[in-house]
Amino acid sequence: MNKTIISPSILSADFANLGRDVKELQDCGADWVHVDVMDGHFVPNLTIGAPVVKAIKPYCNIPLDVHLMIDNPQNYIEDFVKAGADIITFHYEAAGDLTEDIINNIKSHDILVGLSIKPKTPPQEILKYLLMVDMVLVMTVEPGFGGQEFMKNCADKLPVIRQNAPENLIIQVDGGINKETAQICKNLGANSLVAGSYIFKSANTEEAISSLKII
Ligand code: DX5
Ligand code: ZN
């Protein structure tokens, strides 16, 4: 399997200095920058939208990994593409019957597409989409907030997905990732790690990012 893709989440960044923080992540070895978009409806928190993605785009050359935790994702794809998203991940629970259409819409813009599941969604429900997407994001906390505790039972979905996936599928985990939980997820088949509070609370960003790589 290829190297692990580290995607620090800017949910834990200084929102008054996002450009600076995004540039620092890039300088400290991040592979992608993870942007958490929340609508206060699909999840009980409000964060940022496409204008903020557009604003941070000039501050980094690494891919912007946009995680949509919103209802009706089909209505917002073009906005995020125009803003500069390089990967758009949406939730299966929000898309339902529109999942395949949304996958095709995102792909038509020549960017990567990810499909995410919340803790209570069984992995079997998305197996039929594995050949259509570039990435599956397995949430290891209930989406909505940074700094929550890792749910091991969610990581147990990873082998089910890996065993049914094409070889090049990226499997990302998000929520409660630190050096120890990263190791658990990697052993179970993940090859992309999102980490927010672990990286931003650490005294040394570069060391925190590389500690997730050396596993
Ligand atoms: C949670 C978000 C995560 C969050 C992770 O809903 O999707 O990306 O920022 O934060 P930590 O790493 O602190 O759990
Ligand atoms: Zn996220």
Description:
By secondary structure, the chain is an alpha/beta fold. It has helices spanning 18-27, 50-56, 77-83, 92-95, 99-107, 152-155, 158-164, 179-188, 197-200, 205-213, and strands at residues 5-8, 33-38, 64-69, 87-91, 112-117, 135-139, 170-174, 192-195. Strands 1-8-7-6-5-4-3-2 form an eight-stranded parallel β-sheet. The longest helix is centred in the N-terminal third of the chain and has 10 residues, at 18-27. The mean pLDDT is 98. Zinc ion binds next to strand 2.
SS class: alpha/beta
Encode the helix/strand succession as letters: EHEHEHEHHEEHHEHEHH
Report how far the terminal alpha carbons are from each other: 13 Å
Radius of gyration: 16 Å
Offer a concise description of the structure.
The protein has helices at 18-27, 50-56, 77-83, 92-95, 99-107, 152-155, 158-164, 179-188, 197-200, 205-213; strands at residues 5-8, 33-38, 64-69, 87-91, 112-117, 135-139, 170-174, 192-195. The chain has 215 residues and is α/β, with parallel strands linked by helices.
